[in-house]
Amino acid sequence: MADEPTRLRHVLVRTLVDAGWLTEPRVAAALRTVPRHRFVPGVPVLQAYANDVVQTKFDVDGRPISAASQPRIVAAMLQQAGVRAGDRVLEIGLGTGYNAALLAELTGPDGRVTSIDVDADIVDAAAANLAATGYASVQVVCGDGALGHPPAAPFDVVIATVAAWDVPAAWLEQIAEGGRLVVPQRIRGGITRSVVYQRDAAGRWVSADHQMCGFMPLRGGVADDPQRSHDLTGDGRVRLDVYQEQHVDTAALAGVLDQPRTQIRTGVRFDDDESLEWLWLWLACALPGGLGTLHAGRVARNAGLVVAPYGIWLMATTDHGTLAYTTAVDPGAGGDGIEIAVVGHGRQGQALAERLAAEVVRWDRRARSLDVRLTLEPNAAPDTAGDVDQGRFVFTLPSGLLTVRWLDDAT
Question: Closest Cα to residue 341, out of 403, 265, 290?
Fold first, then answer.
């Protein structure tokens, strides 16, 4: 009879398979084999095998900076990576060592897994976890993950388990011919997608797949991706999280939620089981300031500080002392699902809300049914020659250009 951890491990895998999140038999086998609970000591076994994040380290402000990722996301990224027996793999973000153990299962005895993390205590703990569970062959390195690990290069797969705004050049340079990069890439604010990049004949890196995800950012090195949090109420009830490429006038936004509110219904509806991720990606690309994440808990919602009857994430944009965000309302007339609405506050709240609402409608009419491709062009000259009407957006990153394009049938 199987012991309890083994039983729970099989239950977790069956849950992921039944939900359609896990389809690759080799990844399923690895998840059934590696004992996740051994990589999060001190955590109850039931929690270790829940389909949830286990946070393992926090900064001085109490924010998590390291974790064992949600198994659903772990499975998705391993499937994206397409790791084969005998592959050489570099993992950026060692964490607990659990994902490195899964990679070792997939590469087999003829493969090689190298995993790097910036914190010595994380590296030491993960190395102990790996040794205790039979995966001592994984090479663990303490260092700046943005630099990769040249002594073990080239790699067939580089997989990052930390979010990155810019893709470090070292990762691309250390990938073997025909190899792939899997990276949770943050796009113009708070939108992160796990992207599989492969190099084409012209030397560009083109997405083969990308999926919505969320990860802690790179930190402690040359490609740090710091997040900034702006308290909009002075007491922490509502805060706006933004990133380094987003410029927010904190002083001008003080008390913005106390200013008159404009609310616009867009007429754009979503079914109950339909993801908003593609709308958010469009808005992040189309709006000058990208998108930040507006955090408002139950207290703030009950006090009427924000319009969030469904408790969904609120994605926001700003312009000096003006704030606008997307929310959801009842479509009315017996309709199912939700309708997207936009709320604006501040000196130009109505104008910004109208701009945001117009992009929601444009996405619905122009791009809702289209696929999206991401392309990285390292060392390319700065360029802003995008075309919103054609669903093509071009952004300059420190390392080159990122193009996000909604694809017409003829593309």
Answer: 265
Identity of the amino acid at 56: T
pLDDT digits (tens, 9 = 90+) for 43-60: 889 999 988 867 665 566
Measured in degrees and rounded to the nearest 5, phi and psi for residue 213 equal -160, 180
- The pair phi, psi for residue 131, each rounded to 5°, is -65, -40
Average pLDDT, the chain: 88
Of the two residues 368 and 214, the one the predictor is more confident about is: 368
* Distance set, CA 45 to CA 16, 31, 64, 91, 392 (Å): 18, 15, 21, 26, 47
Active-site residue, from 66, 69, 194, 207: 66
* pLDDT, tens only, 184-235: 998 988 888 999 999 999 999 999 999 887 544 444 444 456 678 888 998 8
HSE on the CB side for 44, CA within 13 Å?
4
pTM of the model: 0.88
Name beta bridge partners: 404: 374, 393
Same structural domain, 233 and 123: no
- Distances from the Cα of 187 to the Cα of 142, 152, 214, angstroms: 28, 30, 12
Same domain, 162 and 105: yes
Per DSSP, 216 falls in state P
C-alpha pair distances (Å), 134 with each of 45, 83, 311: 19, 20, 43
> Mean pLDDT across the stretch 100-125?
94
| Whether residues 180 and 328 fall in one domain | no
User: Minimum mean pLDDT among 198-202, 273-277, 299-303, 379-383: which range?
Assistant: 379-383
What is the rounded CA–CA span in Å between residue 301 and residue 384?
39
Q: 3-class SS at 228?
A: strand
Q: Please state, in angstroms and rounded to a whole number, the distance separating the CA atoms of residues 407 and 225.
A: 29
- We report the CATH number of the domain holding residue 93 as 3.40.50.150
Domain count for the chain: 3
The range of the structural domain enclosing residue 354 comes to 227-366
Would you call 353 helix, strand, or coil by DSSP? Answer: helix
Active-site annotation holds for 66: yes
